[in-house]
Design a protein that fits this description.
Helix content: under 10%
Strand content: 35-45%
Oligomer: single chain
Structural class: mainly beta
Length: 444
């Protein structure tokens, strides 16, 4: 859901841009800092926050609609800074052994991806739970984390030469399985909102596959095209898991519908086209599996033809003002909003274009008012009795952050004094209510 902007035609207006986990907020990074926007309205783009304290930001990730934001800049590419942006305070920072390539968040885990290692933190107190060392070279920082913290799976490439996916359980801190998803190297990974499905695409960009989680069985296979190879820049499910959207370096955005056609459909009236369709379907049973599989692949349910090509972009499928919308953010600093017909699909209609580098109207308080009510606040959830073991007894966890197990501990600093996110509407993820001076953790 995030992209580092690299426009081939010249310097990009945005250095990075990403949607939050439920696609209700957009974060952008620029040469001067970063901005956060609320995506609650079609006609109006509300700027929630702007910071110019850290220049040359190339990673900015917001945790849902909370006040927690994670920032990495080109000035210190090996350091992750975690902020409470509404209070203007730094919660903590961690320094790693090499450049940070990507960061993923949910309400339980924070994942930092380097080229050949992955760090998993407990987001509630930012302690390091696990270091996955010697991962295959991953120059783009490709990984995906389920946004469902109760089903906190992490997916990352298991090979630099083939499309193998490693599925890792972020709760038990153990590898769940490996999935031979594609012949060529991976280019995109994404989970659905519940963490029960995983979609992937290879560097060729012609075929997109969806697998069940945690079993790894193939559920769907979609073909976005056969004429040319493309670089998939964005792959995302809708929140209800009914649709899957893919964008690339071409001008076409594809939206696929996740549905299985059953044999219980009513009998169609006998027509020449219906007869030929049945004959064609029957013929696939006698063809080689590779050929028949290609013929049976589902094509796009809906599409968008962008008036730009070659620019970095990311997409999101979101419900805004009770209607399904397709959002496209481009590296030149624009947000496009399209209507999506969930029944008939077809060509999506552009209804609004916003500039992300304009003055922007500050609406920090309005954002919380417009957000749909949440079924259960995080504060109330953690107050309840739970059967989940405490962090001190959780497998793979120790109070020293892993030093006794020989983990590579990044250098880190915590804020002095209490820093508590105690607004129930924010789903507070971090509780650092201990005093003392910040210190450096010794690397092993």
């Amino acid at each position: 859901m995030e992209a580092a902007a690299e426009a081939p035609g010249g310097p990009a207006a945005l250095s990075c841009f990403s949607y939050n986990q439920d696609c209700t907020s957009l974060a952008i990074g620029t040469t001067t800092g970063y901005r956060l926007f609320s995506l609650s309205s079609v006609e109006q783009l509300d700027q929630v926050h702007e910071s110019n304290e850290i220049p040359d930001v190339y990673i900015v990730e917001r945790l849902f609609s909370s006040s927690l934001v994670v920032v990495v800049s080109h000035a210190k590419p090996q350091q992750m800074n975690v902020y409470h942006f509404k209070k203007g305070t730094e919660i903590c920072n961690y320094s790693y052994s090499s450049n940070i390539l990507s960061i993923r968040l949910n309400r339980q885990r924070l994942v930092v991806c380097l080229e050949e290692s992955i760090y998993i933190h407990n987001i509630k107190d930012m302690k390091l739970l696990k270091t996955i060392l010697d991962t295959p070279p991953n120059t783009t920082g490709l990984c995906a984390l389920s946004i469902n913290h109760a089903n906190s799976y992490l997916a990352y490439p298991g090979s630099a030469t083939s499309g193998e996916i490693v599925l890792y359980d972020g709760n038990t801190l153990k590898t769940a399985c490996t999935i031979p998803a594609h012949d060529g190297p991976l280019a995109a990974l994404t989970f659905n909102s519940t963490g029960s499905k995983l979609a992937s695409a290879s560097e060729k960009g012609t075929v997109i596959r969806v697998f069940s989680i945690p079993g790894g069985q193939k559920l769907y296979e979609f073909r976005r095209g056969m004429k040319r190879y493309v670089n998939i820049s964005s792959l995302v499910f809708s929140m209800d898991s009914q649709f899957l959207c893919a964008s690339s370096n071409t001008e076409t955005v594809h939206i696929f519908k996740l549905e299985h056609l059953t044999d219980s459909r009513p009998e169609e009236p006998p027509t020449w086209s219906g007869y030929m369709g049945k004959m064609f379907q029957a013929a696939t049973n006698y063809l080689p599996a590779q050929v028949s599989g290609m013929m049976n692949q589902d094509r796009a349910f809906a599409t968008v033809r962008l008036n730009i090509s070659g620019q970095r972009n990311i997409c999101a499928l979101s419900t805004i003002q009770k209607l399904p919308r397709l959002l496209v953010t481009t590296s030149d600093g624009h947000l496009y909003i399209y209507n999506l017909d969930p029944q008939d699909g077809g060509e999506c209609v552009l209804i609004k274009k916003h500039s992300l580098l304009g003055s922007g109207k500050m609406e920090e308080n309005k954002e919380n008012d417009l957000r749909p009510p949440l079924p259960q606040s995080y504060a109330a959830t953690v107050a309840r009795q739970s059967t989940v073991p405490s962090t001190s007894t959780m497998p793979g966890y120790s109070e020293d952050g892993g030093a006794l197990r020989g983990e590579v501990i990044p250098e880190h600093e915590f804020a002095t004094g209490p820093v508590c996110l105690d607004d129930e509407n924010e789903f507070p993820p971090i509780i650092l209510c201990r005093g003392g001076q910040p210190g450096k953790a010794k690397r092993s």
